[in-house]
Specification:
The complex is a heterodimer. Chain A has a domain of 179 residues. Chain A is mainly α. The chains are: A mainly alpha, B mainly alpha.
Chain lengths: 315, 113
């Protein structure tokens, strides 16, 4: 454990400053821009904490897709900004909230300072069992093998969130296209970038997924990049979002958790328990699940951002 | 003071800021952003736990790192659902307030009209 360098001190101070701005900014749009900046800077902290896999996720979600989601919502809700802001709670409530928040932060800080030494760790166990899967990235090992149940349920949560978003559609638009129809100047910068970037982005996304077996990266990080490319194409109006009733789309959406579950159940027959991979086939099985998951993640994230169906078929 | 502790204290402060914004700001979208800050502060503290568990040639304990990745994904799903609910509230009532005394049904929903 080394002493914090000036760079790390400065990074922590800037992150804290941007977080304060995100809470204190008067305009929601400005706050969301602060939140995106915060997400990108936070990714640097994750790199300094030697968690490059987490840094990739944080940059992709906190700085990327989360920013698109919140900026889009802030733009649509801008007219409600002034009336709602006047409903500020009383000074008593605000002072109480400040005291409570300070107490929670102080308790967390005390917990950080009083962390046990030497720190408990599962790293030796993860290292000792790495040969069982043949993957070199310990985080992928944990996600896909040692704690595979968490990852499978996480994919189910993504799917449930999408079902929740879709179910907000008015009855007569059920099964239609999500979100507004995007139209952009066909000769403009957005349309240009939406043609230029996806071929590169798709290759990068697949690479990030593939390299995740031995190096930082993985299905989620790769899938997020693919989702971003799809969103770019949708926002530039080059391709419309698919109807949510499309059977092909739904097969892609359940492929990831479905194959994960099928392999998990097969674990009873070919392995020793649910989600137990036989050692000889562990690597191909994990990669097979990850291929399906990458596609599912890309489709689910893209549709989560597209929102609830707002247009019936053909509109 | 080690780098991990500095980032841990930063995470604790961010969680506190998020909690304050969640309670004190009346605008639902700001509450959603604040809730995300609260969550990411907690993840940062957990990241410090992972960093301190560095052993066996790894820069950190991979188990908490994997749990944080899962947590970020779940937090994003919940955020997307919350934003969709909020946009639907705006579509139906024409306002985006959580104040139950506000006049409801003043907006027009083009979808149901």
């Amino acid at each position: 454990m080394t002493v914090a360098s000036a760079l790390e001190m400065a990074l922590a101070a800037v992150v804290l400053g941007v977080a304060t701005w995100t809470i204190a900014a008067r305009e929601t749009f400005a706050a969301v821009v602060g939140f995106v900046t915060y997400g990108l800077l936070l990714a640097l902290i994750w790199v300094r904490l030697d968690a490059v896999d987490v840094a990739l996720v944080e940059a992709a979600i906190g700085g990327g897709l989360g920013g698109v989601l919140l900026l889009g919502a802030a733009a649509r809700l801008r007219v409600t900004e002034t009336p709602t802001a006047t409903e500020r709670p009383s000074a008593t409530v605000r002072v109480g909230a400040a005291l409570l928040s300070a107490a929670v932060a102080a308790a967390l800080a005390t917990g950080v300072i009083l962390l046990p030494d030497p720190a408990p760790t599962l790293a030796p166990a993860a290292a000792a069992n790495a040969t069982a899967t043949g993957l070199g990235n310990p985080v992928t090992n944990v996600l896909m093998a040692f704690r595979a149940m968490d990852t499978m349920l996480e994919k189910v949560v993504l799917l449930l969130a999408l079902v929740g978003v879709w179910s907000l559609a008015p009855d007569r638009l059920w099964g239609g296209h999500p979100g507004p129809r995007h139209r952009a100047d066909p000769l403009g910068t957005l349309a240009f970038l939406a043609r230029l970037l996806p071929p590169v982005g798709i290759v990068v996304g697949i690479y990030v997924f593939w390299t995740g077996k031995d190096h930082p990266g993985g299905a989620f990080q790769g899938g997020t990049i693919l989702a971003a490319m799809w969103l770019l194409v949708m926002m530039a109006g080059i391709a419309d979002a698919p109807q949510v009733s499309s059977r092909r789309l739904r097969i892609v959406l359940i492929a990831g958790p479905g194959i994960f579950l099928a392999v998990g159940l097969a674990g009873f027959a070919i392995g020793s328990a649910f989600l137990a991979y036989p050692v000889a086939y562990a690597k191909p099985l994990i990669l097979g699940i990850e291929v399906a998951m990458t596609l599912t993640i890309a489709a689910t994230l893209g549709l989560l951002l597209a929102g609830a169906p707002e247009r019936s078929a053909g509109q | 003071m080690s780098a991990a502790i500095v980032f841990g204290l930063c995470g604790a402060a961010v969680a506190g800021l998020g909690l304050y914004g969640l309670i004190a700001d009346p605008r639902p979208l700001r509450k959603i952003v604040a809730f995300n800050l609260l969550g990411s502060g907690v993840f940062m503290v957990f990241g410090v736990v992972a960093r301190r568990g560095a052993a066996s040639g790894f820069g950190g304990d991979p188990v908490p790192q994997a749990l944080v990745i899962t947590g970020v994904v779940v937090a994003f799903s919940a955020t997307a659902l919350a934003v969709a609910l909020l946009l639907r509230l705006f579509q139906v009532t024409g306002s985006a307030t959580l104040n139950t005394e506000a006049p409801a049904g003043t907006g027009t929903d083009p979808a149901d009209a």
